[in-house]
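Hypothesis: this fold can be encoded by more than one sequence.
Test: take the structure tokens below, design a sequence, compare later.
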């Protein structure tokens, strides 16, 4: 919340914080909440860093992990593919 107020909702450091919160929630098995945090991070990353940045790829990968842990294997594969495509370009 401090970063959000100090840096604003579209700053890359705000995205990093959303990503870290998502990681904690995922480790706790709170997949829906984790997904919400990763989606917030992804939205910021796409706007500020672009669709081919390594941080964007990492977030796609983490979204894939959430989906995999939920048993949504086809959706997980799509996210992993997005991450891989970006990583192969960078």
């Amino acid at each position: 919340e401090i970063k959000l107020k100090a840096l604003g909702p579209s700053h890359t450091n705000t995205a990093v914080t959303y990503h870290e919160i998502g990681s904690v929630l995922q480790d706790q098995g709170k997949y829906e909440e984790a997904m919400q945090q990763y989606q917030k991070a992804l939205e910021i990353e796409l706007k500020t860093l672009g669709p081919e940045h390594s941080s964007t790829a990492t977030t796609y990968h983490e979204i894939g992990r959430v989906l995999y842990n939920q048993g949504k294997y086809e959706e997980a594969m799509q996210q992993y593919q997005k991450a891989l495509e970006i990583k192969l370009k960078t």
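The two ends are 32 Å apart (CA to CA). The longest helix spans residues 31-48.
Hypothesis status: open.
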